[in-house]
Amino acid sequence: MKPLLPCRDCRRLLLWTITEAGKRLAVDPDPDPAGNAAVWRDGTGTWRSRRPSADLPLTGWERLHMPHIATCPDRVQQLALPMGVTSLDAHRRKRRR
Question: What pTM was estimated for this model as a whole?
Fold first, then answer.
């Protein structure tokens, strides 16, 4: 697997990792102290990631990275409603009362 590939939406370079569950996770390639993915390279050269916890804190060979889904500017814009679409959340809140 190539270490850095561009994002389909914003074209930024991503580091693809394999999680403990065997899933692929795209993270920003530069370490970020605000991140929540511990990333390291195993003995075979594969980039691995996991979520640090109180039971298993960050170790010396891991670095914190931010998952790309949290920083992709195009993904954040996609979450906004398209023009001409109205959110019904306010109506639903009134109805529940």
Answer: 0.72
What is residue 68's DSSP assignment?
A: G
Rounded CA separation 16/6 (Å): 10
Rounded alpha-carbon distances, angstroms, from residue 79 to 44, 57, 74: 37, 32, 9
Domain total in the chain: 1
Strand partners, 50: 38
H helices of 2-84, in order, are: 73-79
What is the extent of the structural domain holding 19?
Answer: 4-96
Per-block average pLDDT, block size 10, for the chain (97 residues)? 81 94 95 95 94 93 94 70 75 61
